[in-house]
Structures are given as C-alpha cells and as structure tokens.
Amino acid sequence: MIAVFLAALPGLLPAAHAQEKEAEKDWRAVLAVSQAAMGREIGDFRFTDSKGREVAFADFRGRPLLVSFVYTGCFQACPVATKFLMEAVETARKALGDDRFSVVSIGFNQPFDNPVAMASFARQNGIDDPRWFFLTPRAGEVEALTQRFGFVYEATPKGFDHVTQVSVVDPKGVIYRQVYGENFDLPMLVQPLKELLSGQASESFTVENVWEKVKLYCTVYDPNSGGYRVNYGIFFEIFAGLTTLGAIAWVVIRELRRRPRGA
Asked: Which residue stretches, if any, does this entry annotate as coiled coil (predicted)?
C-alpha cells in the first residue's frame, strides 16, 4: 500500500499544485470584484426587518453602517463569522460609543431568508443589539444588491460558496472599506470607523466636535488586552506641543514688536 501511494505522488503533486493555483486565481477575481465596490453608493434598497417592519438604507444615513451578507441555512461559515462580528462590534461600541454606528445583516438566499428565519438566525447567534438589524431584501433585487456591494456567491449542492466580507459604509451611503474573513484583526474594522467619525467631527467647528476628534485620535488598540483604550498620554503630548508652539509664537511676536520701526 505504501509503495503504491509513493508511486502515485509524482502524479498527485502537480494536480494539487494546479488546484491551488486555480483557487488563488478565483480568489483574486472575487477580491477584484469586491474591491471595485469601494467608492460606490449603496443606493436606497428596501427591506423587511426581522420584526416585519419596512426598512431602507436611507434610514441609516448620518452615521457609519456595517453591512454583512448571510444565509440562514448555513451551519458553519455564516454563524462563525457573525459571532466574531458580534465580538468586534461590542469592542467597537466600547471604544467609540454605543450609538455611533449601525449594523445590518442581509439574507441573500431568497425566499428562504425571510423575516422569521432572520429573527431565528439572530437568536441562535446570540445577537441582542438594538442597533443591529437582520434584513430580508425583495427577491427581485438580490442580484442588483449583491452586485452593488461586490458580494460574490455561488450555489453549490451543500448551499453556497461566498466571500465573507463586512462592508464599512460612510454616513453618506458610500462604501468606504471592505473587511474579509470569518475573523480578522480588530483594527481592520475599528480603524475605518474611527476615520469616518473623525471626519464627521471635522465638518463643523465646535468645542464638542474638537474634543470628539481628539478623543477618537487618542483611542488606541491595546494588543495585550485585545481591546481599545483612551491613551491620555497622546492628549497631553498634543497639549504640550500646542503649548510649546504658542509660547514660541508669543516670543516671536513680542520680539517683532520690540524692534524699532524701519529697523
């Protein structure tokens, strides 16, 4: 048996290598489609949420939005990815604020991912977040919706093969970033949210917005704890820097005023 296996290896190895190359080629094609969606407006698709209410993307304008696609018949990848996303969302809320962004999970396997199935999927995965919505799209709009987000999926005998991604949408409804994988480093999700919220704080100059921007800047990832914290040291460094620049400016202005006119 061992001799037969070894004799077969020269034929098996090239075949396995070819399959790996083909899989890499397919992933690059999927990634290109997904990446091309960045900068694209998400439109105003309409949905039914898990409580039977009509919801539209327009309802989420004004703050960042996280969008994931799932199908409720999935017993492995979708639950794993959703539970990890729940942990990432909880970390982001602690770092940035509970009401700073919303989350939606969209069931793309229609008509099976109906509101009842989506509600059951949320319960099974322990999601109890008032700002996380499980949505059922109109059956005739699934293709246009998934294409808008660059979400690639393919039906198989066991269900679907699909890219696992979370789309980060800006407050104006434009896809800002794509995050991939059943799990990922937390800064990959939290950093773009920080950037979007910081940009919002810069749009109008108020004391509250300036403080919010400084606080966001000082919120840093701590790899030891696996979470985020406000590093007040950065704040004091900024304050010291501004104080030093102010002192230098004051000295320069004072010296200029002391000089005789015409000197």
From this structure: none
